[in-house]
Amino acid sequence: MSPALSILEKTFGYSSFRGQQAEIIQTMIDGGDALVLMPTGGGKSLCYQIPALVREGTGVVISPLIALMQDQVDALSAVGARAAFLNSTQGAEERQRVEAAFVAGELDLLYLAPERLRVASTADLLDRGTIALFAIDEAHCVSQWGHDFRPDYLQLSVLHERWPTVPRIALTATATAATRREIAQRLQLTDAKQFVSSFDRPNIQYRIEAKQQPLQQLLTLIRTEHPGDAGIVYCLSRASVEKAAEFLVENGIPALPYHAGLDSRVRAANQNRFLREDGMVMVATIAFGMGIDKPDVRFVAHLDLPKSVEGYYQETGRAGRDGLPATAWLAYGLQDVVQQRRMIDQSEGDLAHRRNLTAHLDAMLALCETIECRRMQLLAYFGQVSEPCGNCDTCLFPPETWDGTVPAQKLLSTIVRLQRERGQRFGAGHLIDILLGKATPRVTQHGHDAISTWGIGQDLSDQEWRGVVRQLLAQGLLAVEGEYGILVITDSTASVLSGQRKVMLRREAPKRSKAAKKATSAGLLPEHALPLFEALRAWRAEVSRDQGVPAYIVFGDATLRGIAVTRPASTAELGTISGVGEKKLEQYGDALLALVAGSAMVSGG
Ligand code: ADP
Ligand code: ZN
């Protein structure tokens, strides 16, 4: 057996490599460089951890996620690897202890914050020990155009200059082809072997629905499909984070807020509780989540429209890292589009920058309004061709389409008339009032009950008209401008008005929450395995509390499910379950076997 496979089995308790892991690991063991693009949950960590264990010396891991280094080190210690970190949270004494261990060759892995490399003493320290490899985690942080740019990443090219013989591996879960080129260039990895995995996350069910009462819709999702599950809820503003978290707590869902306006200690404490306690819901701005390793996040919900498909994919990717079923759910409405356009209009930066933001938003809108498979569209965005997936809302409940040319013409011609004839421009609400023939004060004040399109849209409801507006925006047949969300025509509008272009729209989806597949952590277990699974979860909660580590570091849900279903009766049988390596077998084997035996008596008696 190869040394890599032997470590995979004995240390990590897994029976086979996933995807390209074996090739990547071999490249590193042989001393080559690698650039690895793998989706979240794909198994990037093993790609540098195993070579670090096989090669002589210490694997040095550069990671921007200081707050998570302790957990990463704990996870490695839990499987018997020797790991430590150096960052600004440590005292001098602790730091000296770690440095001495590194120099003495007593560490398999050393985690470093990128800013430490600015300090000359860090380079001197690295010279005194033996470096097995450099791993650059979250490598997209080097991209100046990306949303996670860290200036300290730019100087990581020194690694290559100062230690030219040490193999390097850069890893990221988020990169379009352009970002990938930028990473390779800036990190001087243009000669490295590139490993690009499929970006698909088949276990995540993608769903996007129209926003009506978003908080109620969210509550229904949690209560019907994810009771007791851990999840993340993303909001755009701090205020909406606070509001949503309060709402969930009032309704009996354990939820915590996380945003940049909170005191850093509160933030850290909330993050800790989310990682350590079972079934917590984190309500957060996008400031939350990068590098969160928690594998059992069962749903990611967006209450506001994300700014780009790339961001959306990264955020939803935090669901279901353990490969078990998970839900990515987004509610979006017309107001989101108006608000985001306004933010772009008001943003600092030049025209090119605003065009770039607009292009990102348009791609996101197109995803929301598509009548095709969501996953196909997502993957296409990352340059990957695929077939309809069978696990997104449009595949599961194909939307009906209808010919919306006439309503589109009614709306567009109203806009054109008001603008051409009277030089007036309005937002969606007022235009819909005109079409519905509602004599609001504003309508009568402007005399809009006298124009020819007044009341000609009564065949659709207010809600349906909003759907029409959203879809015309997504198709580029309408644009929104300025602070008040004014609707204006585009270059393509004329073709619709002249009847040259047909407009196909999707019907507003019927309620379907009941039909949706269950993706709870316990939901897919056979009935008879449930009591043991719950007993194992309770045991795990106790152990993780005693040791002060997150529950998933003790065992992941997938491992507990494996035990609950196969009911191992001996240490040897227990050892064959995925996620049970030698160290954990020795440490927890007896307790687990006793739980299995105990629950057998209950269900048998
Ligand atoms: P990433 O960093 O790519 O998001 P991780 O390295 O955190 O992913 O791995 C995700 C999950 O998959 C972890 O729980 C990890 O232990 C598990 N895993 C990784 N490789 C394997 C494998 N070969 N077999 C079984 N489980 C694996
Ligand atoms: Zn699909």
Sheet of most strands = 7 strands, parallel
Q: Evaluate the radius of gyration.
A: 27 Å
Name of the CATH superfamily of the largest domain = P-loop containing nucleotide triphosphate hydrolases
Number of helices: 27
Can you list the strand order of the major beta sheet? Answer: 3-4-2-5-6-1-7
Tell me how many strands there are: 17
Portion in strands: 5-15%
* Count of domain modules: 4
Assigned CATH architecture of the largest domain: 3-Layer(aba) Sandwich
Bound small molecules, by name, code or SMILES, are:
adenosine-5'-diphosphate, zinc ion
CATH topology of the largest domain: Rossmann fold
- Structural class label: alpha/beta
Mean pLDDT: 90
Write the layout of secondary structure elements.
Layout lengths: L2 H8 L10 H9 L4 E4 L6 H11 L3 E5 L3 H13 L4 E4 L5 H12 L5 E4 L7 H9 L2 E6 L14 H4 L3 H5 L5 E5 L4 H10 L6 E4 L7 E7 L3 H12 L4 E5 L3 H13 L4 E4 L5 H13 L4 E4 L12 E6 L6 H8 L9 E7 L1 H13 L4 H19 L4 H8 L11 H4 L4 E3 L1 H18 L5 H9 L4 H6 L15 H13 L3 E4 L4 E4 L3 H5 L6 E3 L23 H18 L3 H4 L2 H10 L4 H5 L6 H23 L1
Parallel strand pairs: 1-6, 1-7, 2-4, 2-5, 3-4, 5-6, 8-13, 9-11, 9-12, 10-11, 12-13
Antiparallel strand pairs: 14-17, 15-16
Helix pairs in contact: 1-3, 2-3, 14-15, 15-21, 18-19, 19-21, 23-25, 23-27
Question: Can you put this structure into words, describing what you see?
Answer:
The protein has 605 residues and is α/β, with parallel strands linked by helices. It has 4 domains: 3-196, P-loop containing nucleotide triphosphate hydrolases (Rossmann fold), CATH 3.40.50; 204-389, P-loop containing nucleotide triphosphate hydrolases (Rossmann fold), CATH 3.40.50.300; 401-507, Orthogonal Bundle (Arc Repressor Mutant, subunit A); 522-604, HRDC domain (DNA polymerase, domain 1). Helix content is 47%, strand content 13%. The chain has 27 helices and 17 strands. A 7-stranded parallel sheet has the order 3-4-2-5-6-1-7, sandwiched between helices. Strand 3, helix 5 (92-103) and strand 4 form a beta-alpha-beta unit. The longest helix has 23 residues, at 582-604. It is globular and about 85 Å long. The structure holds adenosine-5'-diphosphate and zinc ion (ZN). Residues 14, 17-18, 21, 38, 40-46, 293, 295, 321-322, 556, 578 line the site of adenosine-5'-diphosphate.
